[in-house]
Amino acid sequence: MGPPLGVHELLHVFSFLEARDLLRAAQVDKVWNEVSGTKELWRQLCLRRWSSCKDSQVTRGTQTWKQYYLCRSELDFRVESGRPEKDLSPCRAQRQVCSLSGEIAKLAYISPNEYCFDRREKSVVCTASSDGTVRAWNLHAGMEIWSSPLQPDALVNLVTYPQLQLVVTVDAQGLIKVWEAESGRESASFCLPTHSSALEASDHPEGPFLLAACADGTLYTLTVPGLQLLSRVSAFPNHPASLLCSPDCQWVFTLAQDSDLSPKVFHSHSLLCPLEDEPPVSTALPIGLTSKACWAPDEAARLVVVHRDDNGVQWVVTTYELGAKKSRDAMNVLVQQIATFNLPDTMMPPHLMKGHGSQVVLLVSGSELVLFTIHGLRLAAFQDHQQPITSLCVDQSRVVTSSFDLSLRVYMWKKGNKFPVLKSCYHLLGGSHRWASGFTQVESDSMSIVGVEARSAGTSILRSYYFQLQRD
């Protein structure tokens, strides 16, 4: 028998092992135990299994890469299984959060959506209600953290900046306010001339900013947290607009609602740093009668749009790549069409749309969820809901849908040979149809799922679920 392998030789051999084999190797003797727990071995396992995994998620807390791998593997199993009382539990935050005359207009997480397993993680959401209050909720503890003073007008929208711990709301009159997420203290305000049709939060490399679209088609760009006006541009005169920031925050997509006007794309730097007497850098896409749009989350500037064809008859999905070319005199927007396909004639026009990765688009039509590649290959279709789907939450691990049938549906992504595979897992049921009219919104982070359940009396409650982990 030859001499035992040294530490470096063992490290080389162990680098080819999976997690289960490393755990077995740790039981051989003291040397194997120490080598099998080497940081770099478990770091590489994490990065191979979860492409979104970041060093900051481990170094920020007290967990090791091994602890991270084992905890997240357990979490993935529990999210996929969804067994009551074993994998997830209803939180006590299932209570009415607004007055008898109000309902939740918007829900958003204020806690960072990162996987952290050092016992300090906490899922916190904020709600804006038509009764004029903004509130913060600890989903794990199932309790309200704070509630703002009653505002004069109903709150109609909300966005959050988790890294800055800030919440931004807008009321029915167009009054925008910034709230500190830890205390609920109001820190800034800005009044739009008309009510707002859209809010969009952006963490731009040059600094965070807020986009607000007015009902008259004007787009406002404001600093955060001070809400100082940076620019104001008329995007679609007399037409309310919707807004979408690209994943790299370099582009802003604007769409005129209920109009055949061509959508526009703005270069965000020109909104942040406008030049005197010069319009912001933008271009109109060569399409009309646009319905929905989304960005591909794994690409810096890949835009997917649902629109009518040139004859105004067939629904078409077109994908563009955006770029900017700077010349001596100006900045020009480059738009390249990279894919297009027609939706089936039997498919109703989609009312919800999200992207996944760089090649997959999810469309919701009525109660059906359909997955296509950007080139038109139909990957899957799900008809798990009995009534129309009202909200769609998509991340790199899972998809959650809400419906008027008083259920939330959980799906998990799996690696396929060429394209990701979506697996339907289980339902999370809401309350009684006697008291409730269905779920209207759903959001999810790494540890929890929360939905807004509309009540027959015109109020709302939160129904939330927290995934349980058994940690040493």
Automatic annotation (TrEMBL):
<feature type="domain" description="F-box">
    <location>
        <begin position="10"/>
        <end position="48"/>
    </location>
</feature>
<dbReference type="InterPro" id="IPR036047">
    <property type="entry name" value="F-box-like_dom_sf"/>
</dbReference>
<dbReference type="InterPro" id="IPR001810">
    <property type="entry name" value="F-box_dom"/>
</dbReference>
<dbReference type="InterPro" id="IPR015943">
    <property type="entry name" value="WD40/YVTN_repeat-like_dom_sf"/>
</dbReference>
<keyword id="KW-0677">Repeat</keyword>
<keyword id="KW-0853">WD repeat</keyword>
<dbReference type="InterPro" id="IPR050505">
    <property type="entry name" value="WDR55/POC1"/>
</dbReference>
<dbReference type="InterPro" id="IPR001680">
    <property type="entry name" value="WD40_rpt"/>
</dbReference>
<dbReference type="Pfam" id="PF12937">
    <property type="entry name" value="F-box-like"/>
</dbReference>
<dbReference type="InterPro" id="IPR036322">
    <property type="entry name" value="WD40_repeat_dom_sf"/>
</dbReference>
<protein>
    <recommendedName>
        <fullName>F-box domain-containing protein</fullName>
    </recommendedName>
</protein>
